[in-house]
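Supplementary Methods, section 5.1.

A reviewer requested that the exact input to the structure prediction be made available. We therefore reproduce it here, unchanged from the version used in the analyses.
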Amino acid sequence: MTWRDKTVFVTGATGFIGGRVCERLIQAGCKNVSAFVHTPHRAARIGRLPIQLRLGSLTNRSSVREALGNANLVVHCGLGVGRGIVEGTENLLEASAAAGVERFVHMSTAAVYGLTPKPGSETEDAPLPHTGELYCDNKGRAERSVLSFGRRGLPVAILRPSIVYGPYSAWSTRLIPDLRERRVSFIEGGKGACNTTYVDNLIDAVFLCFEKQEALGQAFFITDGERLTWGDFIQAHVKMLGEEITLPNLSLQEIRDYRRRQPGMFKGSLRATGQALRSRELRQLLLRIPVTKRALDAVWHWSASLDERSRDRIRARVGIRPAIPAATGNHRPIPDDDTVATQSTTVFFSIEKAKKLLGYSPRIRFTEGIALVEEWLRFANYL
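The structure derived from this sequence is encoded token-by-token as follows.
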């Protein structure tokens, strides 16, 4: 009996990576696939597949145990919000250990080393740092929980992809409209390291973790193994538009200087509060108050963990719209803090460990992967 004959349980199945895991499992000939679904209306992509949809929440222990059933293999792509990342992972680990799961593959992220990984974090030997970034640190805590259960006997493996792209990926679906609306600038000439992982290369690594005993108790960086820059990635999308687009360039110093010139938290809040109180468009002006915007952003992200009806009701009241990027005096768009951090790293992650222990070899090179993305973007009317 091979892993294809066993029952596979996938969390985060309505997401980009989890959805592709489900598709690839069926393509591989798996007959028993269960997908853990938090929000049914988001399951259209996987709903066409011959799989079982199990409703529930990772933060609800009883629903996790019931949905898991007697599954043999688990692929944990589910996320959560804030500490829910850790809580959901631990609930699934406890249920998996109790059910005698034969392999638990945890989808982590290279961001456990921060949005701007420091030199020295190129290999899995580097200790996990405290980054001060909520998402990164909680993903690191979740990894520690996985390894703890591994030491107690649960067969676990951890994958750390970085910039996972492919059809349905937000890296492309957000970048194309931003390019079209001239909301993109290069940071330091686009020289930052872009550790791309084509989604099917990542799923190949998941399947290898099912098969290889060497995977147990280990964490692996998974990338395409190419030294691409953010300039390469962005320009590949510019070419898809078929337009002459010259992107402006910003240095990190220029971005810091711009941020330094902006009103501070207290002064900016006081100034904008007066404007808001005199306006009929109170909701939109509230977003100009740094304190209020931060609070509303927190509510928006927190609401993601609620049931669909509650989430939609709260978000309708908050009413946050996508922010328009700030611009310098010569109209160069200023990237948000996360974009600056992500595109500033010089670290290229090594996949030598995955090659050696898993036999991992990226099948799809960037030129092929980005061509598949363009084909899908045209099909989906983004181009």
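Residues 134-151 form the longest helix (18 residues). These observations are discussed further in the main text.
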